[in-house]
Amino acid sequence: MLNFELYNPVNYIFGQGQIQKLNELVPQNAKVLLAYGGGSLFKNGIYEQVTTALKGFEIVEFGGIEPNPRYETLMKAVEIIRQQKIDFILAVGGGSVIDGVKFISAAVLFEGDTADILRKRLLFKDLSQVIPFGTVLTLPATGSEMNSGAVVTIEATHEKLTLGGSALFPKFSIVDPTVIQSLPKRQLQNGVVDAFTHVMEQYLTYKHDAILQDRLAESILQTLVEIGPSVVENPTDYKLASNFVWCATMALNGLIQKGVPSDWATHMIGHELTALYEIDHARTLAIIGPNLYTVMFDTKKDKLAQYGQRVWQLEGTTDEIARQAIQKTVDFFHTMGMKTKISENTDHYQDTANFIVDRFEERGWKALGEKQNITIEKVREIVEMSY
User: Fold this and answer.
1) From the CB of residue 381, how many other CB atoms can be counted at a distance below 10 Å?
2) Are 253 and 146 in contact (CB under 8 A)?
């Protein structure tokens, strides 16, 4: 196993009726920025639960954080916090709202051009340099409720970039599985595929000695395969909902990544499709992932075969199982409602490979993946195969 450090200070509060604990979790006498996205939390009762639990606190509301949160929007919240001397943020939403709040937390006290937080992929480790925040999760998918990473889009330049650091863990996260009951089917489909691909990024690399880590990753994949289609059709089933929500958190709370290599090239390429065409994040992963596995087949086939045997119970030679495993993955994505070609998601795709390659070259991203062997040429091949 590789050397690692495991640090996760999030107070994770799981189950029905837990939102009422907010008045114990938010620091007493705090002035709170209540940050959220669209209007769904007003329709599903979450807003009322949150504001009731926070009765007695001074609250300033900031709504309108987009899916794929925009830097330009988030900076408006940063200014509100600076002007009104707010000292705690509560993110009520899915991964986009929570990611946006992580950026806001980092940007308020940042000296210099706040866009550099994203362009330089800065890591924040000093708690005194960020605004503390908690979360109430309303859309499981990204694991952002229990990790310290975030992705934000700069709309002016169509760039989707990251930030993070140990100071950007939520102080607490309330996760009530019943919140998924009111979610549209498309968002549930996205959530399952997003969590599935998060695991694949940390698992589908090459064979190594971290036996338990592989088994943990495979158990999440198997669970998502088992419950994914059903939870989309039956989100009121608490057994399905609770297992789905916990899978999404476990997929990206840092645990399965410790001691093992990881890839993340699927995400790096997929982010560009979202920035370019507004394709849902999970759907970009479903587009790129299987084609990346195909292009990088020679270096991934041993792990693909292990995945095929353990998750899909396939039999045959290493090459046969590995290729069948890729097809099984595509089939699963189709079952989850994904359209796995760029051309099925946008009409303007012909120059996509050129645009992404140019972007990666500008940033110096010329060696991606767990072996740093996904070159610019390989990126072009992966994207063109995805048309």
Assistant:
1) 18
2) yes
Q: What is the pLDDT of residues 261-299, one digit of tens each?
A: 999 999 999 999 999 999 999 999 999 999 999 999 999
Sign of CA dihedral 200, 70, 135, 237: negative
What is the separation, in whole angstroms, between the first and last Cα of the chain?
A: 37
Q: What percent of the chain has pLDDT over 90?
A: 97
Check if the beta carbon of residue 54 is closer than 8 Å to that of residue 22.
yes
Q: What is the reported pLDDT for 34?
A: 98
Decide: residue 343, CB within 10 A, 0-12 exposed, 13-18 middle, 19+ buried.
middle
β pairing state of 150-154 and 133-139: unpaired
- The answer to whether 295 touches 378, Cβ cutoff 8 Å, is yes
| 18-45: pLDDT as tens digits | 999 999 999 999 999 999 998 788 888 9
Phi, psi at residue 144, to the nearest 5°? -65, -20
pLDDT tens by residue, 213-229: 999 999 999 999 999 99
DSSP track, 15-63: STTGGGGHHHHSPTT-EEEEEE-SSHHHHSSHHHHHHHHTTTSEEEEE-
Given a cut of 90, is residue 348 above it in pLDDT? no
Convert 76-108 into a string of H (helix), E (strand) and C (coil). HHHHHHHHHCCCEEEEEEEHHHHHHHHHHHHHC
Best CA proximity match to 50, nearest among 135, 130, 120, 115: 135
